[in-house]
Design brief:
This protein has a six-stranded mixed β-sheet, sandwiched between helices. It contains 16 helices and 14 strands. The radius of gyration is 21 Å and the shape is globular. It folds into three domains: about 90 residues, no CATH class; about 200 residues, Rossmann fold; about 70 residues, no CATH class. The N terminus is likely disordered. Helices cover about 40% and strands about 15% of the residues. A hairpin with an 8-residue loop joins β4 and β5. α6 crosses α13, α7 crosses α8 and α12 packs across α13. By secondary structure, it is α/β, with parallel strands linked by helices.
Length: about 375
């Protein structure tokens, strides 16, 4: 998994948005300031061509996503003037993770040790004779490192296997879960998605015949976007990762559509109809007056969320988003119902401890059938 010499994914430093790619699997990220982004366009898609030509072929697009990423020639890296980071370098990776912010991405030490203590699938002395990690958990809404560790401990207790954690923390400021929804609604690709895509690649290359990634809540959306990053770079995971989807705002079909082309295996989805995050259509039909937390969080949150109203994801996050807006503007009797279900039905522990649709059993069986190397 060594980085190539002249390939890169280009990210706007101010917004964190992916703006360009040479579509090569090179493990490089180039951060561009505002002038750098302008230069990227000027050099790779001159103004006259933008004004007078059909430029669609110069962009990477996807019908399931709302982005236009500029195709960049591989040779541009040497003249980009940006800050170049190597995702296979532990220090570079850590710096980029910090740039995603306190409500951004972090990773458990056992996972990063695995990632940066391997050369392809060969371990070094940092891992020693320990079994390689092959079970991972990716958290979602209303969560942080402490909550992710709690979920990981549940899985470890059932499997007697150490669990690696992919953590997207909730900002503990005023917005809290509202901030989660604002973060996940934009149907575009950001720096955190590039990092998560690299993590998936490193998991697939760890030498195990099989790995399991359990995705909870908006962690499913994170994986969906990471998979699209990998698709852009023509990456295939080679069937090395099995995915379990829990409490997901992303429908099973959509997950399959993004995972199958990159060699990922979605082996099950566990969604409780009482969990408002999982509802793509049904929730609005069953409880049309549901306001998840508007009456609790107030109109200010509704106003903040309204700023994102033009963005669509095709996932259940939109329904939670709509509920916040409805509650934020006017509140309502349904607010207590939706908020209660969000707190009681949605947490990973609720799914796991109830062995919902056999989730706990399936995780244990998978661990017994797929020992680590």
């Amino acid at each position: 998994m060594n980085a190539a010499t002249n390939n890169a994914t280009y990210v706007a430093k101010e917004t964190g948005k992916v703006v360009g790619s040479d579509q090569n699997n090179d493990h490089k990220v180039v951060l561009l300031d505002e002038n750098g982004v302008e230069k990227l366009y000027d050099e790779n898609l001159p103004l006259l061509k933008r004004l007078f030509s059909d430029t669609d072929s110069n962009f990477i697009t996807n019908d399931n996503f709302d982005f236009r990423i500029l195709k960049v020639d591989a040779s541009y890296l040497s003249v980009s003037g940006g800050e170049i980071y190597d995702l296979t370098n532990k220090s570079d990776f850590a710096k980029l993770a910090q740039l995603t912010g306190k409500a951004g991405m972090s990773y458990s030490s056992n996972l990063t040790d695995m990632m940066f203590s391997q050369n392809s699938s060969t371990l070094n002395s940092n891992i020693g004779d320990q079994d390689m990690l092959n079970i991972f958990f990716q958290n979602g809404m209303q969560n942080d490192a402490k909550g992710a560790n709690k979920s990981g401990d549940l899985i470890e207790g059932k499997t007697n296997r150490e669990v690696g954690l992919i953590i997207n923390s909730t900002d503990q400021g005023k917005l809290k879960v509202g901030g989660d929804i604002i973060e996940f609604l934009p149907n575009k690709l950001y720096l955190k998605d590039v990092l998560n895509g690299e993590v998936l690649q490193q998991i697939a290359a760890n030498g195990n015949d099989k790995n399991l990634l359990i995705m909870h809540s908006a962690g499913n959306e994170d994986v969906r976007k990471a998979a699209e990053v990998l698709a852009i770079s023509n990456v295939n995971l080679g069937g090395k990762i099995d995915f379990m989807s829990v409490g997901s705002p992303v429908p099973q079909k959509q997950l399959q559509q993004v995972l199958e082309p990159i060699g990922g295996n979605l082996i099950g989805q566990y969604n409780n109809w009482k969990d408002p995050v999982t509802h793509h259509k049904t929730w609005a039909a069953v409880v049309p007056t549901m306001f998840v937390a508007g009456a609790i969080y107030g109109a200010e949150i509704g106003t903040s969320l309204m700023g994102q109203s033009s963005v669509t994801t095709g996932t259940g996050l939109e329904n939670v988003f709509s509920a916040f807006i409805g509650g934020g503007v006017g509140g309502g009797v349904g607010g207590g119902v939706g908020y209660y279900n969000l707190q009681i039905q949605h947490p990973f522990e609720a799914y796991f401890n109830k062995d919902f649709k056999g989730l706990q059993t399936d995780i244990k069986n998978w661990s017994q059938e797929n020992p680590p190397k």
